[in-house]
Specification:
It is globular, with a radius of gyration of 22 Å. The protein has eleven helices and ten strands. It is of the alpha+beta class. Helix 7 packs parallel to helix 9 and helix 9 runs antiparallel to helix 11. The strands form three sheets. The chain has a four-stranded mixed beta sheet with strand order 1-4-5-8. A four-stranded antiparallel beta sheet has the order 2-3-7-6, with no helix packed on it. The structure holds flavin-adenine dinucleotide. The site of flavin-adenine dinucleotide has 19 residues, from strand 1, strand 3 and helix 11.
């Protein structure tokens, strides 16, 4: 038996014993069911105690961050072993033990750019889900043109002083710490930005939730008034934050891409259409809807294959490439299409917001469709991602 086969056998046996039955099976998507998935952190509330048990068991093995080095709490697995772990988890439909901006975005850039002390301080707490992170990038007037950001960070000798405002900060009201882009030099644009970390419980930090069209409030306006930040919390060089910011965005887009957006859960569009529209000879009765669902399925299949290709490329290049922008763009379009088709197939029943006249699934479909509108904005808009593809993947000239 090869080493990898032995690892598979061990992993399978371990998961069988350690993954609670209630943590198996199709779960709700993170975007739609904030309370039902585990984000960890100091304020975490576990509706199901077995969710915490599952997190603790996986974190103890470092398997919430399988490929991170063991020195920082990770699993120390090779890429091939991590793939086996993913396959074995999928085999028993084990749910992810932890959803975390720390795992998906911050951790990978800390591994690349942070000091040894910073890695030792932050990475193990991310792995264990002890600290929940939020992303302080966008500001009013600095979204797509992110480098126009104005949140000031002044050197006060023994500490930094931060003043300004962020917007659309996902889960800022629930997060413990923020990774934040700040202006440390007003005389330069990109070269005047730094990447800092601070505790959201620091005096002078205020997060005000914004209500979304879907009824949820997943993001906030975040205000900083004379927030004192230890100088040790600067990651990389002073005024060298833009490079780290861009790298983190690649990880963000890669993560969004590989998971897709998953709107409306894992229900098959075909089954929904058959249920609501009826069937003719076993097929969806409405020919036009049937053709569009078939086209969507073909696109989804092509998308899955492209994701695999780009993942292989990332593996070879030891990190994500600008090609993740292709996937971010396509993932948003596909999820929006899927949600629209789902609501359309439900007819009048797809128009429910609340009330006894609608099932839970129908209300969820409607809300998922509304939530999906943000997919082409979050993590960089579709237009901005197409610009990245034009310049950095296709090598077209920038005439601006
Ligand atoms: C669900 C969700 C969660 C988010 N979470 C976070 C978060 O946690 N942290 C955070 O910092 N931000 C977050 N954001 C903000 C997001 O990153 C920004 O909304 C996004 O970058 C766009 O910026 P903007 O809203 O300022 O729009 P603008 O930049 O003002 O864009 C307006 C329109 O102009 C277009 N446009 C702008 N520039 C160009 C160009 N050069 N070429 C072509 N078209 C262009 C855009 O595509 C868009 O259609 C989130 C957004 C959403 C929807």
């Amino acid at each position: 038996m090869s080493d990898l086969e032995a690892f598979r056998a061990e992993t399978r046996a371990w998961l069988e014993v350690n993954c609670p039955v209630s943590m198996r099976g199709e779960g709700p998507s993170a975007a739609e069911a904030e309370g039902d998935v585990v984000w960890g952190g100091r304020k975490a509330v576990y509706k199901n105690p077995e969710a915490k048990l599952w997190l603790d068991r996986m974190a103890a093995k470092g398997w919430t961050a399988p490929t991170w080095p063991k020195d920082y709490g990770g699993g120390g697995l090779s890429r091939d072993e991590a793939k086996v772990l993913t396959q074995e988890m999928a085999r028993i439909q084990a749910r992810p033990p932890l959803y975390s901006f720390g795992l998906w975005m911050l951790g990978p850039v800390l591994l690349e750019y942070a000091s040894e002390e910073q890695k030792k301080e932050h990475l193990p707490r991310i792995v264990r889900g002890e600290i929940r992170w939020c992303q302080g990038y966008s500001e009013p007037g600095a979204g797509s043109d992110l480098a126009s950001l104005r949140t000031r960070c002044e050197d006060k000798g023994d500490h930094f002083l931060v003043n300004g405002q962020k917007i659309w900060t996902s889960y800022a009201d629930k997060a413990d710490w923020i990774f934040c882009l700040v202006r440390t030099d007003t005389s330069k644009k990109h070269e005047g930005i730094s990447f800092i970390l601070f505790d959201m419980a620091s005096p002078g930090v205020e997060a005000r939730p914004i209500r979304l069209i879907s009824g949820n409030s997943p993001f906030c306006e975040t205000f900083f008034t004379d927030v004192k930040v230890p100088k040790a919390n600067l990651v990389g060089r002073l005024n060298g934050g833009w490079e780290i910011a861009k790298r983190l965005l690649q990880y963000e887009r890669q993560n969004i891409s590989s998971g897709g957006f998953g709107g409306g859960g894992g229900v098959e569009l075909e089954d929904i259409a058959k249920h609501y529209v009826g069937t003719e000879g076993g097929r969806i009765a409405d020919g036009d809807l049937r053709a569009r669902i078939a086209a969507h399925r073909m696109e989804a299949k092509a998308f899955a294959l492209t994701v695999r290709r780009i993942e292989e490329e990332s593996r070879a290049a030891k990190g994500p490439s600008p090609a993740v922008s292709i996937i971010k763009y396509a993932a948003a379009k596909l999820n929006q299409e899927r949600c629209e088709l789902m609501v359309e197939a439900m007819g009048h029943q797809g128009l429910g917001w609340e009330g006894d006249g609608f099932s839970e699934g129908e209300i969820m479909a409607m809300r998922a469709m509304l939530r999906s509108k943000g997919n082409s904005i979050e993590g960089g808009t579709s237009e901005v991602n197409l610009n990245v593809v034009a310049k950095r993947v296709l090598g077209l000239l920038d005439h601006q």
